[in-house]
Amino acid sequence: MLADRDVPVAVRIEAAEKLIAVREPAEAHLGLLRLALGREPSPEDRAHILDLLPSDLRACAVRVPPDPAARAV
Fold this sequence. Notes:
Layout: H1 9-21, H2 25-37, H3 43-52, H4 55-60
């Protein structure tokens, strides 16, 4: 579910939070890292994702450059 792009970002974050709560952080952190590296999350969602990641993975989640197609011409 965490990797399914058809599932809304907020639902994937919630699923990761539940995995972390039941002491299954590895899958949650991997899914969150992948999500953080993508272009899908809003800046607010990305900040929440980064807050959920441990510091070593947070450092790997570099900011993705903005999508050139999204620029106004």
